[in-house]
Amino acid sequence: MGKFLDSDFLLNNRVGKKLYENYAKDMPIIDYHCHLNPQEIYENKRFKNITDAWLGGDHYKWRLMRANGVEEQFITGDANDYDKFVAWAKTVPMTVGNPLYHWSHLELQRFFEIDTLLNEETAQEIWDETNTKLQGEGFGARDLIVKSNVQVICTTDDPADSLEYHMKLKADDSFPVKVVPTFRPDKAIEINRDTFLPWIHKLEDVIGKQMVNYQALLDALTERTEFFHEIGCRVSDHALDTVPYASVTFEEAAGIYEKRLQGDAVSCEEEQKYKTFTLIFLGKQYSRLGWVMQYHMHAHRNNNTRGLNRIGPDTGYDSIYDGQLAVPLTGLLNALEGADALPKTILYSLNPKDFTVLAAVMGSFQGGGIPGKLQLGAAWWFNDTKAGMLEQMRILADIGLLSRFPGMLTDSRSFLSYTRHEYFRRLLCGMIGEWVELGEAPDDKELLGGLVQGVCYNNAKEYFGFFK
């Protein structure tokens, strides 16, 4: 019987252990999608206590606390930080079988050198020890990033953002990590949401021009992509909860925009047309600039209206969408391919039933002499589990090239989440080792070691071009 979280954690075969120890363990991290705050990185944020570092903004934990019967006061409410920590400590023993049981203890081990299991009885001890360390040297946001061997961080940024702190970080030679923005124009796409018109006015203030017609908006988006590019951006991202596609002309999209600008709602059909034209336009800009385009698809957000009204979005009330995907997605990709403007693209779905669909769709658009031009994105959000990661990699290996996969991302607001890369790398090595044990892959350390290092780091380095 193995010891919990020992050196062989998740490594159940000889080859997997060697691959992890010799090829994966010490590889740097390129975190090409996360939600860290660039201001907190620049200012080397110090944390008040472990609750501040661990529970603030973490809706993964919040969902489990609710499921364990914890009152909202001790989750996102006005309870003091110690009581919130104790509420989480009481929940942790109930999470056995959930990845948060592993992640929580990995973070305690890797960052705080604490092997004690967290529960109600050990809460005071762990609270005291972690907080003592957090108040000492080496536990600011930058310190945690460097300790995790991170080379690149891609934050998530609106086109109207000033990128003030990205520019400050770019000019700061004392910090060895490249922190670059990601272009996330969701508010420009979601024409029917209440956020659309206020966002247009914000963009007008940034650009210094009125968005009086659709061409003015497209020109402003072009200007912002070029500004982002100057600051180091090489990645875009779109939250496509439902994937749109409809035949549309510029004149139709322009009319729909102007209708919305006058304060009128647009129909579902009009919304599809506006979104289609705008997404294709943006895809062409990404291709021109040499960026990677990311589509995060099939989230079903804000299911609980009462919870949304009480706390706001991104607080643990989202789930998985199960709508149509292949037809509209291929429509978007084919329109870009037909214009010879399909950028390198990563396709993520929150619904694991879509993994095989996406792997098959992307195979239709590979080419141009670019290794792995289209990618099946890493297991995301509800799939960010042992089973989900293994399923995503196995489907990619079945239908595409696992060897070209750019690997894991953090998709987190926490500076302690980098242990997820270790978790992923152990699963990758264990899976490949299992293939060797079953006679399905050769025991060739050069071949398999190269594959592992590619997936852990080298592929992302080449694919995104952050160092070119």
Taking all Cα atoms into account, the compactness measure Rg is: 23 Å
- Estimate the helix proportion, in percent: 40-55%
Helix-strand sequence: HEHHHHHHHEHEHHHEHHEEHEHEHEHHH
Class by alpha and beta content: alpha/beta
First-to-last CA distance: 48 Å
Q: List the total number of helices.
A: 20
As laid out across the biggest beta sheet, the strand order is 4-5-8-9
Overall pLDDT score: 97
Report the major sheet: 4 strands, parallel
Strand elements, count: 9
Low-confidence stretches: none
Shape: globular
Q: What is the percentage of strand-forming residues?
A: 5-15%
Relevant terms:
468 residues, alpha/beta, 3-stranded parallel β-sheet, 8% strand
Short structural description:
49% of the residues lie in helices and 8% in strands. It is of the alpha/beta class and 468 residues long. The radius of gyration is 23 Å and the shape is globular.
Topology, please?
Layout (H helix, E strand, L loop, with lengths): L13 H11 L4 E3 L6 H5 L7 H5 L4 H9 L13 H11 L7 H14 L10 H12 L6 H7 L2 E5 L9 H7 L7 E3 L5 H4 L6 H12 L6 H18 L3 E6 L9 H12 L6 H22 L2 E6 L1 E2 L4 H7 L7 E2 L5 H13 L5 E6 L5 H9 L10 E3 L9 H14 L19 H19 L7 H20 L4
Parallel strand pairs: 1-2, 2-3, 4-5, 5-8, 8-9
Antiparallel strand pairs: 6-7
Helix pairs in contact: 1-19, 1-20, 12-14, 13-14, 14-16, 17-18, 18-19
